[in-house]
Amino acid sequence: RYAKESGQGAVIYNERLDELIRTEADVLRRLKESIQQGTLEVWYQPIVLLENGGYSAAEALVRLPDGRGGYFSAGQVISLAERNGLVEELGDYVLSRACAFMRTQGERLGLRRISVNLSVQQLLVGNSADHLLALIEASGADTGRITLEITESVLIQSLDRAAQALDKLRQTGIHIALDDFGVGYSSLNYLSNLPVDILKIDRSLTKQILTSPKQYALLRSIVEMAAINGLMVVAEGVETRAEQEAIASAGVQYIQGYYYARPMAEKELKQFLAEKSGARGEETALPRA
Ligand code: C2E
Ligand code: MG
Ligand code: MG
Ligand code: MG
After folding, report:
1. Is the CA virtual torsion 181, 58, 116, 77 positive or negative?
2. ipTM of the predicted assembly exceeds 0.95
3. Helix (H/G/I), strand (E/B), else coil: 178
4. Torsion of Cα atoms, 231 then 190 then 165 then 36, to 10°
5. Which of 59, 149, 251, 273 could form a Cys-Cys staple with 179, CB 3.0–4.6 A?
């Protein structure tokens, strides 16, 4: 009886494992296909300049359709791509799409910059800067309108090897943003030596500033250190008016969060930005009937 029970357990366990592996293999297959067929989507989340309420930038975020009308989580897709040697191809795809969007739509939508996430693997391959610059050039986009985001924790781990590529990219006018800043490492001392232009405060810190005076004070000192070093600060994950107000009072210049806008497909973004610039009573560069 005992043997039989444990035998059944093993069968159930194997089925679950099988299901998991099948799911990963399925996502991977869909990812490869969607890159080849050009059906992998790139969505955009607006970034607001608090000073004038303008939607001055947007972050490109990958969206893989799940075949059931939804999307797999971007985090899952990126991690899978990184573990299966696909992240460079994925990164090239997203960068090219985002640059093409910037070149064709950016100016008339009032976007000063488009932001694209980079996996550290994309930076550590040989000739990474030349490769990325060639892609941007081929798209016709202006390097001054491109920001590349790299996660703080992984950048710090491989700074020696990544610094040269980052320097080369920055020399062309590309901005570098330190993503997910303020979790883990968050040493303010090294800020003066980093080849970056923008700090993106992680959502986990944004979430705590209303309830924790200590975290609010940390945010204020980040803002202060950023100012001393000539860096811009973007707060991610702002979802409520109260959070928006606290972030603004801490001196942060840019906000990205559901409070203003969620990530959206290209078509929705165009509509959204056209409506917003209309609502602010500004001249829009959209064609007139
Ligand atoms: P990230 O670069 O830090 O991007 C911000 C994430 O926070 C996005 O999740 C966005 O949808 C989410 N977010 C923004 N505002 C709010 C808010 O107010 N509340 C909440 N709850 N969430 C908010 P997403 O699109 O799921 O992407 C997750 C991560 O996947 C990204 O974090 C980035 O690290 C990675 N990723 C996405 N696209 C790419 C890509 O094309 N290449 C690479 N290498 N990584 C990417
Ligand atoms: Mg990012
Ligand atoms: Mg982030
Ligand atoms: Mg994040």
Report:
1. positive
2. yes
3. strand
4. -70
5. 149
